[in-house]
Amino acid sequence: MSFVKVKGTYDVLPNESKRWQALEKFVRDLFNTFKYEEIRTPMMEYSNVFHRENEQSDMVTKETYNFKDKGDRDLTLRPEGTAGVIRSYVENKLYANNRLTKLYYIGPNFRYERPQKGRYRQFMQFGVEAVGSSDPFVDAEVIFLAYETIRRLGLKGVKVKLNSIGDDLSKSNYKKVLVDYLTPFKDQLSADSIERLNKNPLRILDSKAPEDKEIVENAPLPINYLSDAAKEHFNKVKEALDALNVPYIIDGKIVRGLDYYSHTVFEIEAAIPGFGAQNTLGGGGRYESLVEELGGPRLGAIGFAFGMERLLYALEMENIQLVNEERLDAYFIYFDEPSKSMSFKLLNELRQDDFKVDMSYLPKSFKSQLKEALDLKAKYLVIIGENELKDQMVQLKNTDTQIQELIPMNQLKEKLGVL
Ligand code: AMP
């Protein structure tokens, strides 16, 4: 019997976790600047939060982890952040203060997808939701924040792709045009798409089935069927982004993977070597009916999410360091039980004063302890032997200059503090 990780998952080992922490800190600081506040919602929700009448996307219908708990309740591991956040927004009446509620989250999502590079079954996302307004300036703020995220990280070669799929009127007009276009091809479409033709034709646009590809390629696009109101909204978003010099490309093919979107949708794409089609770092869009669908008032919202694995990989590919080299202040080296006890006492006293210090608990020779100290990039060695212990002294050696001095134990803190 062997014990292995679940297919499509991964471990973050200590040598990688610092990069994760650094990215999380970066995100928190940046989102704070824009006055977004963190919300932490459960990783599981009652299934109806995701499985709604109007949500027929593959992500929700085919890729969710669904199970019953011992109380026979239907639960789903969240496949994305937004629905749970909006469930919480409504349940906790965050709309009561009559303000735009600006939330961010960082956490894992679960999708039963085919695992490959950049695609996992448990993956981390951070994202924002600005809930309670349909103002196009909010769209621009959210897109600007997504853009700032990658700009401040220093990622080059990143594209912001923008599209509008319009309001309800535009969507129902477009739906007719799309069905008229697709119907003559009915026999050539994939089985899934034939089913979607009646239920949810828009989903056919992001079909990955090879037999659909060419048909979809030449399909009419939502952006050409926008109502006047939707056009006006989109123009205002573009104007606001132009004023901020956000470089974007209009891409009429972006429809996003969920059904709740309307108006503005966008994706942030990077050319990541080896990632193939998995090169979308993040994406988002406006959703005008989800708050109401989840039992709240009719309030508009917009959000985005970035995938952290892909983002970290892109940073690595572009040689962008998130973490500065970490050094230990000092490493203790001892020779016998009495000097080990003294090292243990002294180093934990230093820790109380926030010095970063360590020692080996394994029975190691002087040479092995020294090697460990150098691996950990200790600035100082504190060496305690029989003689030093007898005289209540320690040897303090600077590993950069190689200068070594014999100092009284009770001066160690002072010496390390000023050296
Ligand atoms: P989505 O929620 O599908 O719009 O995805 C937003 C971002 O999350 C994507 O651009 C990816 O960076 C990331 N993402 C989505 N699905 C996965 C997955 N299965 N594995 C890793 N990252 C993912």
Short description:
With 419 residues, the chain is of the alpha+beta class.
Write up what this structure looks like.
The structure is a single chain. With 419 residues, this protein is of the alpha+beta class. The protein has 2 domains: 14-167 and 227-317, Bira Bifunctional Protein, Domain 2 (BirA Bifunctional Protein, domain 2, 2-Layer Sandwich), CATH 3.30.930; 330-418, Anticodon-binding domain (Rossmann fold), CATH 3.40.50. Helices cover 36% and strands 21% of the residues. The protein has 14 helices and 16 strands. It has helices at residues 14-33, 58-61, 82-91, 136-153, 168-182, 191-199, 210-217, 228-243, 290-293, 308-317, 337-352, 366-375, 386-390, 412-418, and strands at residues 37-38, 44-46, 66-68, 74-77, 101-110, 122-131, 158-164, 249-250, 262-270, 280-287, 301-307, 330-334, 357-359, 380-384, 393-398, 404-408. The strands form 3 sheets. It has an 8-stranded mixed beta sheet, with helices on both faces. Strands 13-12-14-15-16 form a 5-stranded mixed beta sheet, sandwiched between helices. Strand 15 and strand 16 form a beta hairpin. Helix 4 packs parallel to helix 8 (228-243). The longest helix is centred in the N-terminal third of the chain and has 20 residues, at 14-33. The radius of gyration is 28 Å and the shape is elongated. The mean pLDDT is 94. Residues 80, 111, 113, 118-120, 123, 125, 257, 280-283, 305, 307, 309-310 line the site of adenosine monophosphate (AMP).
